[in-house]
Amino acid sequence: RQHTHAMSHKGFTSHVSTVALGLGDNIVCVVSAGNNTRDVLIATSDTVFVQDRTGALTRRIHWDTDGKESTSRFSEITCIAPYGNSIIVVSSLDHAIWMITAANKLVVLLGNEDDSGSINGHPRLSRFNLPNTILVDEPNGVFFVSDTRNNCIRRVCVDRDPEKSIVSTICTIERPRSMAWLSQTNNNFVVTGSDSCLHKIDITESGVAVVSTISLVDREGRSMGVPVSVAVDGAGSIIVVFENKHHIACFKYVEGARAYMVRIIAGWFVCLSVCWFVCLVCCLFGVLSVWCV
Q1: Alpha-helical runs (H) found in the chain
Q2: CB 131 within 8 A of CB 95
């Protein structure tokens, strides 16, 4: 709750649990483990955990420079995602994207550890500069990566033959960070940037990215501020974290240029509303007490 960083919604409807990781570190990402399981992937800044539906931690993944599961190797994890039986980890300060296989083998999937840059082409030769989020389109063998300091969205076409996989830039957005599928069926997603709107990206059948903006406004049509993290729930509502305003809001998107706020989910606004309600009840109680006397 203090310094909300990232979030994801992927079909969780009834079970929420709190995990004490015992690391003195912030949780930065929580996602479904996929593969029709109810396991949950949890990431701190340098470690990945797997939690089952009872709340028990079943797997703890952190690495040293020899690839042995002991001390940390990841530097500033910003996103995790399931991919088949593997786990993809975006390690932003490493400028690299890793894959942890089902056999616990750690391999560099994209970029090169501690070597930033802006290079497309073969995945092993590609370079990123503070990658933040990865979206996985597993049926089509495609990844989308927000490359923050390169101010662009990168697409990775994955082939069964690794030598035929390729990285390309599909569009430019200033300081892209968090991403979420708006509709994976329609092949479009939303991205946060450095401004006070969301960027909607539609991928056409020919593979071209069409970029538009979605204004985030309150009930009076006023801007809500700069979003830092975004998720989309099963009903199509857009959930947005506004870090500087310390709250999380839910928006209903109507096809067009705006998303209208439905409610504040958490943050100072909710607390303030509760306080006002309590004060009002107390005042009414006081007035009734005086009137009865």
Answers
A1: 268-292
A2: yes
pLDDT given for residue 103 in this prediction: 79
Residue 22 burial (CB count, 10 A): 7
Cα 231–Cα 30–Cα 1 angle in degrees, nearest 5: 80
Among residues 127, 124, 121, 162, the alpha carbon closest in space to that of 141 is found at 162
Distance CA 233, CA 237 (A): 6
DSSP character string of 85-111: TEEEEEEGGGTEEEEE-TT--EEEEEE
The pLDDT value given to residue 126: 95
**Percent share of the chain, pLDDT over 90:** 33
| CA distance linking residue 111 with residue 60, whole number of Å | 24
- H or E element in which residue 181 lies: strand 179-183
- The model carries a pTM of 0.79
Joined together, the tokens standing for residue 271 give 């607390």
Distance CA 1, CA 160 (A): 41
* Residue 241 CA: distances (Å) to CA of 54, 180, 266, 292: 28, 13, 9, 47
Half-sphere exposure (Cβ direction) of 20: Cα atoms closer than 13 Å: 1
Higher-confidence residue of 108 and 145: namely 145
